Fold:
Amino acid sequence: MGGYSSEYKISLISGNVVYQFLDTTKFKGYRIHIFKEKWVYVDENETEFPIDKNDFSVTVAGTKTTFDAVFNAIHGTPGEDGLMQAYFELLGIPQTSCDYYQAALTFNKRDLLSVLKPYGIKTATSYYLNKGDVINEAEIVNKVGLPCFVKPNKSGSSFGISKVKAADELPIAIEVAYKEDNEIIIESFLDGTEVSVGVINYKGTVTVLPITEIVSENDFFDYEAKYLGKSQEITPARISSEMTAKVSAVAKRAYEILKMKGFSRSEFIIVDGEPHMLEMNTIPGLTTESLIPQQAKAAGISLEDLFTNAIELALKK
Structure:
């Protein structure tokens, strides 16, 4: 848990929830904090012991411990973008999230949507910028229209996202996004019903969880809406059974096309009866208020069962 991005606080909460709900009859859990300045095991007394990065082990009172599996609860870099996945693969340690290529691909919104488009998965109209590119406001507006969303290409928890309603707001929004990433995606505004769809491998079967409808009090599903109660999250979503089946099929197809493992949570906006994908999260929030736990509960899956399933699948890998 932890990480190097703005999302580290959310990750620490997610990691502690996983630790709290681990089935202690099956597993002995260790809280490992991953930060730029230190990798440490944190014991029950909050005492820290350094992790040996050579083999991902820890030595406490002269006894060296290695791990059978890693439950990856790091949102953002280095846990959601493929770096930790590649590291654990090199060490031969099973972990609960997808493989490194899928993590890197899905963490890059532009590349993810580009890969899925040929399979008929609809997306918003988008415009891309790299840091240093000339900003042509007229060209941007001409392509994506107003209002539009300016987003860091590789970021989560809605950090750095702005809804832009007038062309003269673009430079400020772009500057805000560049604080999170050196690549930006600017997307057309999709006016429709926003839903979040969890897909997991549950006991060996790709399973779509009950869909959540997002009704934000703010302009969009931003950080406040996600974590500070400024939204209604309605599970199951108030959409027809036909639309539920349609969105579920698209989310499941994306999971299978990408050869995903572990958890995924995809965001869609339904416009004129068609789901448009915004992004896919491969280390979604696991706090008790987060969407995947809400959806699992609606499916009759307890947190203990959800986490046990993830660890057992990793161990089978």
About this structure: The chain has a mean pLDDT of 94. The longest strand covers residues 193-202. The chain is about 30% helix and 25% strand. The first helix runs from residue 8 to 21.
